[in-house]
Write the structure tokens for this entry.
Amino acid sequence: MDSELIQSDPAVMMGKPVVAGTRITVELILEKLSAEGTIDQILEAHPRLTRESVLAALGFAAQALRADVVYPTIEQST
């Protein structure tokens, strides 16, 4: 992952990680992909993005999750 492609600045999108030089958040890219969007559709909708920047966003998200500890919850029946 090219760490220069993803930046976080408190003055841009409240500090959320964005693709450098844009206001397109890593979160937005993940949401579009999770809604069955494709990288090509994202690139078409956001011409300032490149395939490399979308992949950098995915790499950033994977790295962020790697650092988190996730504890599964158990639903209790009522």
